[in-house]
Amino acid sequence: MDSTLDEQRPEGFQRVASALQALGHAHAPRWLEVAARTSQEAADALGILVGQVAKSIIFRRAEDDAVVLVITSGDKRVDEKKVSALTGPLKRADAAFVKEATGFSIGGVAPLAHATPPGRTLVTLIDRELFRFQEVWAAAGHPNGVFPLAPAELQRMTGAPVVDVVAEPAA
User: What is the C-alpha separation between 133 and 114, in angstroms, rounded?
Assistant: First the structure.
């Protein structure tokens, strides 16, 4: 990607691009012509399966307002009870909390390069369902930004444990 164009992109996208470069990631983030705020929109824009979208879900830990980031497949629902069993009781995170705690707006929360304020804890979990795929696509700090990576790379870059936190399908 042209570095001049990168400088014209939003700050969150630039932060992710810099983090990926610093981590030695082989792919610069891609700017989509359409916003992909949902997993389905991202899959449609990229021509991939919805499950290949590594969606970032933010919760707020009740006891200390820590940021709990769950990264899972776009075709799965997160089971809040499974997450709280690992992290402690959770509260919903509204748009203002997500922006303040990560530096990203909902629909563009990247799995890395968060602008987490000093003193705020960030807990990241990766759901094992992502490992069904060789390649997944994650948000790159803006609804128009995405980048590809292998699930194992995601784990290496974030240092997050791989866990089972998806809801069981309805019978």
Answer: 25
Per the structure block, which two tokens stand in for 25? 């990631």
Q: What is the pTM of this model?
A: 0.92
Q: Give, rounded to a whole angstrom, the gap between the first and last alpha carbons of the chain.
A: 46
Q: How far is CA 25 from the centre of its chain?
A: 16
Question: Do residues 138 and 114 lie in contact, with contact meaning Cβ atoms separated by under 8 Å?
Answer: no
Decide: helix, strand or coil at residue 56. Answer: strand
pLDDT in tens, 99-136: 999 999 999 999 999 998 888 899 999 999 999 999 99
**pLDDT tens figures, 39-48:** 999 999 999 9
- DSSP code per residue over 67-128: EEEEEEETT--B-HHHHHHHH--EEE--HHHHHHHHS--TT---SS---PPTT--EEEEEEG
Residue 169 φ then ψ, to 5°: -60, 145
